[in-house]
Amino acid sequence: MPDADKILVRVRVNGEHRDAMVEPRTLLVEFLRDQLNLTGTHIGCDTSYCGACTVLLNGRTVKSCTLFAPMADGGEITTVEGLSTNGELHPVQKAFADCHGLQCGYCTPGLLLSTLHLLSKAPKPTDQQIRKGIAGNTCRCTGYQNIFKAVRAAAAAMEKR
Amino acid sequence: MGFGRDAIPDEGKTEAIVYSSPFSYYRAATLEEASHQLLRLGEEARLLAGGQSLIPLMKMRLARPAALVDINGIPGLDSIEHDNGELRFGALVRHAEIENSEIAASIPILHDCAAGIADVQVRNQGTIGGSLAEADPSGDWGAVLLALETSVRCAGSMSERTVPLEEFVKDAYTTVLKPGELVREVIVKVPPKGSGGAYVAFKRCAPVYATVSAAVQLVLDARNTCKDARIVLGCVGLTAIRTTEAEAALRGTPLNAKNVQAAADAAHEAAQPQSDMRGSAEYKRMLVAALVKRAIGIAAQRARGEKAESGHEYAGR
Predict the structure, then answer these.
(1) Candidates B14, B121, B204, partner chain A, best to mutate (most A CBs within 10 A)
(2) Residue ending a domain, choose from B189, B219, B242
(3) Contact A68, B51 (CB under 8 A)
(4) What is the CATH number of the domain that holds B218?
(5) Which residues form the domain of B104?
(6) CB atoms within 10 A of CB B19
(7) Domain check: are B62 and B168 in the same one?
(8) pLDDT tens digit sequence for B103-128
(9) Smallest Cβ distance to A48: which of B22, B48, B122?
(10) Is the distance from CB of A102 to CB of A59 less than 8 angstroms?
């Protein structure tokens, strides 16, 4: 039998130091949801397809269902819970709300982080850059048109900031 | 398949999370340490780089390693360097870094590939070294790098060797890597002047593997005669297939519609596709011929110094 002893994972999540002892096979998404009680990050397909579990790890989007938690040790993580400040929505969140860039909301946490990452690389994205930037996030409600509007509105709002 | 629910351990979990089999986890601080750990742990151990192929396989329990050796913390494996007519990619260079690299942009076929592998999240995490070592028949780098002169620098605990890519990949999911040996660097020779390449991969949507792909690298002279050609077919065999028959249809001849069609016909014959959920064997044969034709056209434009876009084609792109 393999030795599957628990190991310590230490991360900074949304600016706070957090740690927990986990089995190595624990997925990052499960670590966030079950160990740290950050249930804003969703599990959709659980097969690296849908992007509902997208978080920022060291400034880059990753699918947290396709990383083992120990791989994030020492890292800086941003989840949807870390976007608002003092109860005020982040401009990306506000743009999604204003433009109806969601219906059921299941994919939204992942889309918010993919949008944030896209705008960090391309502050004024073209339509093609937006399509490519959110190609790893599946939404089964909106038909994406309002999401495109939201991303454009978010880009405009972020530019003003 | 139902692997999700079956995989829940008996701990009263209410959520259906897809678990891999238990394994022990080791971090290596140096290449030597990684190699020693692999040798000590034996055949049941696997190397962990970006994990974007291995982790899904483990979650589906198609792979059940008893131990993982994580090399993500090894310094010096994540740089792209250009010297002496070669581009050298450290094993841990992520696809996204190649997509955004000015050095890599000097060889457009590399950008075609890097910018379209799966989606942003996977490109941020997946590595060039991991992709080659995995040797998935549907992997993108295996086809693209075969269209260039590529070699793989492999490190063992005591020694190193550099192996041409043609010899590195032996079969589907099988490389020449020996126990304790790992990919350290991928070395690509810069193509000569007058050379142009293109990679075209057709897939249903962003996150999935391509159905079929074609990688073409040409050298044209000022009179549009093809001095050299490399044509590689992806996803239509146990490994990427370099088709010398298609290359021969172009080499030493004017690049015209008749010769391009002959190359496409040769690719149609050289493909060894299997019918699966992505398409029938006959569909893939027809697709590979079409993609070869398209890739030759774009490669030729680039060889003449014209700008042309290429890469992964999928709905909504």
Answers:
(1) B121
(2) B189
(3) yes
(4) 3.30.390.50
(5) 80-189
(6) 22
(7) no
(8) 999 999 999 999 999 999 999 999 99
(9) B122
(10) no
